[in-house]
TrEMBL record:
Gene: gcvA_19
PANTHER family from the UniProt entry: HTH-TYPE TRANSCRIPTIONAL REGULATOR (PTHR30537), HTH-TYPE TRANSCRIPTIONAL REGULATOR TRPI (PTHR30537:SF74)
SUPFAM superfamilies from the UniProt entry: Periplasmic binding protein-like II, Winged helix' DNA-binding domain
Domain HTH lysR-type as annotated: residue spans: 15-72
GO BP terms, alphabetized: DNA-templated transcription
Family: Belongs to the LysR transcriptional regulatory family.
One of the record's GO molecular function terms: sequence-specific DNA binding
Name of the protein this chain belongs to: Glycine cleavage system transcriptional activator
PROSITE patterns the UniProt entry points to: HTH_LYSR
Organism whose genome encodes this protein: Falsiruegeria mediterranea M17
InterPro entries the UniProt entry points to: LysR-type_TF_proteobact-type, LysR_HTH_N, LysR_subst-bd, WH-like_DNA-bd_sf, WH_DNA-bd_sf
Keywords for the protein's UniProt record, in alphabetical order: DNA-binding, Transcription, Transcription regulation
Presence of keyword Metal-binding: no
Length: 301
């Protein structure tokens, strides 16, 4: 009876599960917005849960800046414990729910890479691995693989992932691209410097355009134009004739082949980073994971 009362007291004194889940996701992604997308709630809900959790525990879990949040020492300790706990819960549930004779593999990547590279290969994947139930996990572009609960992770980076096995998967070249409609309306630029008078669209920041202009010896100061976070939105804007964007070869090969986008100059910029295939050095189903990684590398060759 005493043990039962102790258990009841423990359960009633714990913070709510949604609050703990919201905190764990925010700690894992380093962003309230990314955490909200990952667990399908609003950023306001994430913020509300975390404020309530901080009040319940009487500690500050995050330091908040204008565009970023960072864990405090107390937050780091709580995040480490909760991450292990949620992974254990998820593994236990999946072990019970798994389809007989099937192996569940979780693969994490950004939505643009999933849409533009993996999705066209889905049928071939299922033909090669009929015994695998594949679960795709959406992640922000620059989140660390160590902080994502997945068997296989495809991420953009420099190849340095401590404690993980990393293989280069897709190298990316960038070059200006535009739609035929925009070229018909404004004419085709004859030199790289002509692009300074065109409407330019940027992804995340102006660095991509600045680097390409520098590589082609074009002075550029105070580049203007809309900055858009999502890769697919950037490309749709270009296809719709709204401006010129830096295209990512080979991820836009289908648009170039169809003629919906046109590469304006032969000059391409080689990125210092690439898409890497990352996995842990140990764990369950290691042979199946290794076979899938070999298949993905072969697909990218």
């Amino acid at each position: 009876m005493g043990e039962e009362n102790s258990f009841i007291h423990l359960m009633t004194s714990l913070p709510s599960l949604p609050a703990l889940r919201a905190f764990e996701a925010a700690a894992r992604f380093g962003s309230f917005r990314a955490a909200a997308e990952a667990i399908n709630v609003s950023p306001t809900a994430i913020s509300h849960h975390i404020r309530g959790l901080e009040a319940h525990l009487n500690v500050q879990l995050f330091t908040r800046e204008t565009r970023a949040v960072h864990l405090t020492d107390e937050g780091t300790r709580l995040a480490d414990g909760l991450g292990k706990a949620f992974r254990l819960i998820e593994t236990s549930v999946e072990a019970v729910a798994q389809t007989p004779g099937k192996t569940k593999i979780r693969m994490a990547m950004g939505p643009s890479f999933a849409t533009r590279w993996l999705l066209p290969r889905f049928a071939a994947f299922h033909e090669a691995f009929p015994q695998v139930d594949l679960e795709l996990v959406q992640t922000p572009l620059l989140v660390s693989p160590q902080n994502v609960d997945a068997d296989i992770f495809i991420t953009w980076g420099d190849g340095v992932f401590p404690g993980m096995i990393a293989d280069p998967l897709v190298n990316v070249l960038t070059a200006p691209v535009a739609s035929p409609a925009l070229i018909d309306r404004l004419g085709r630029p004859e030199t790289p410097s002509d692009l300074l008078s065109f409407p330019l669209i940027h992804q995340r920041d102006t660095f991509g355009w600045s680097a390409w202009f520098a590589a082609t010896n074009v002075k550029n100061n105070d580049l203007t134009g809309p900055i858009i976070e999502d890769t697919n939105v950037v490309l749709q804007a270009a296809i719709g004739g709204q401006g010129v964007v830096m295209g990512w070869v080979p991820l836009i090969d289908s648009e170039l082949d169809s003629g919906s986008l046109i590469q304006l100059f032969d000059a391409v910029l080689s990125e210092h980073r690439a898409y890497y295939l990352v996995r842990r050095t140990s764990g369950s189903q290691t042979q199946e994971i290794a076979n899938i990684c070999d298949w993905l590398i072969h697909q990218a060759a």
